[in-house]
Amino acid sequence: MALPYLFEAWALDHQLPPEGDWRTWVIMGGRGAGKTRAGSEWVRSMVEGSRATQRGRAKRVALIGETYDQAREVMVFGDSGILACSPPDRRPTWVATRRTLIWPNGAEATVFSSNDPEALRGPQFDAAWVDELAKWRKPQEAWDMLQFGLRLGDDPRAVVTTTPRNVAILKSLLERSSTVTTHAPTEANAANLAASFLEEVKTRYAGTRLGRQELDGVLLDEEEGALWSLARIEASRVQEVPELDRIVVAVDPPVTGHKGSDECGIVVVGVVNKGDPKDWCAYVLEDASVSASSPTVWAEAAINALKTWEADKIVAEVNQGGDLVETVIRQIDPLVPYKSVRATRGKAARAEPVAALYDQGRVVHTRGLGDLEDQMIKMTAQGFQASGSPDRLDALVWAVHELMILPNPGRPRIRTLG
């Protein structure tokens, strides 16, 4: 049957090449998201013509993996490799002595190792498939040598299939105007994965830093000099939460309430505060932030979080909204326990003592806080190093101040109202 080889008929969206004029297509995804199949099928689409012996768009292809063995076993002979994906009449022949695939139409694809960049000095190509770039040991050297050799034909192109990691070569590549990107989590390819595998990895890793990288395929980009590091956040992860003495819902309302507004940061934090204050520990329980299309939306979300967690109070920043913040909340529930806080220092200055508590191991995270953690690793002593406002982080800081810093003599205080 021809259907298994008609990839475009059943491929997932992230496995199909984007339209337009691009030099490099980066396919980022979680483990098992179908990246290898996409790379194999792209090579096929480049080298095959309308008939088995007719030439395609590319005649000289580079296949580059971390090592020769990995490139051969995954990209050539793997379950989703080129040989497995090719129909019988177009299946290339593997010439082991040359580390090369040769198609019936004369096209060739040669295997290279990223650990041997000099092997790429000299050959020239009109297409390249690069696998797991983010884990190469000599990424820049190998990538540079490939670029010098990618010079045949009218439109030489490369495809990169990789699970993302916070490495310079990948970040630099993604920033280029000639790069296009598709992305998918592991679960997008669930139909082709064992259900027991998905259940196991989700149970063990969902909501963790490793899970976001290896399952969700998210590039976790830690800012240099950030107050929070990825390693510190991951080290603070807990599986269980003890009985808590207090819980608050902290709210950082947006300046305005319309479709283009910033999000409203809503974060739930509890504390165990018995005994010596040095032994207190805060637990970040939920990031309930919402897109604040109207004040009513975020106010209802905050009150719902209060009721869900049976929290003691809502703590809301009022620098922008003043009395309006409390008014909106009390229109929904006049009896809600409420406290206003007003900042007298900048965001970074407020965040520093909270970051110090993390360094002491006195603030810990439950799972599922990825969006909040993304903002945390972008906050430096010089300010927030990303677009938009750190709404979720601001709410976290207010909650921890309320539970861990304000009750303790000698710790930095924030002026509070109400």
Notes on the structure:
By secondary structure, this protein is α/β, with parallel strands linked by helices. The protein has 2 domains: 3-203, Rossmann fold (3-Layer(aba) Sandwich), CATH 3.40.50.300; 230-417, Nucleotidyltransferase, domain 5, CATH 3.30.420.280. Helices cover 31% and strands 20% of the residues. It has 14 helices and 18 strands. The protein has helices spanning 7-10, 35-47, 68-76, 82-85, 139-149, 168-175, 195-205, 209-214, 230-235, 295-308, 323-332, 347-359, 370-376, 391-405; strands at 24-29, 60-65, 93-95, 100-102, 108-113, 127-131, 157-162, 179-184, 246-252, 263-272, 281-287, 290-291, 313-317, 338-341, 363-365, 379-380, 383-384, 416-417. The strands form 3 sheets. An 8-stranded mixed beta sheet has the order 3-4-5-2-6-7-1-8, with helices on both faces. Strands 9, 10, 11, 12, 13, 14, 15 and 18 form an 8-stranded mixed beta sheet that branches. The protein has a two-stranded antiparallel sheet with strand order 16-17. Helix 10 (295-308) crosses helix 11 (323-332), helix 12 (347-359) packs across helix 14 (391-405) and helix 13 (370-376) packs across helix 14. The model is unreliable at 409-418 (pLDDT under 50).
Short overview:
By secondary structure, the protein is of the alpha/beta class. The protein contains 14 helices and 18 strands. The strands form three sheets. The chain has an eight-stranded mixed β-sheet with strand order 3-4-5-2-6-7-1-8, with helices on both faces. Strands 9, 10, 11, 12, 13, 14, 15 and 18 form an eight-stranded mixed β-sheet that branches.
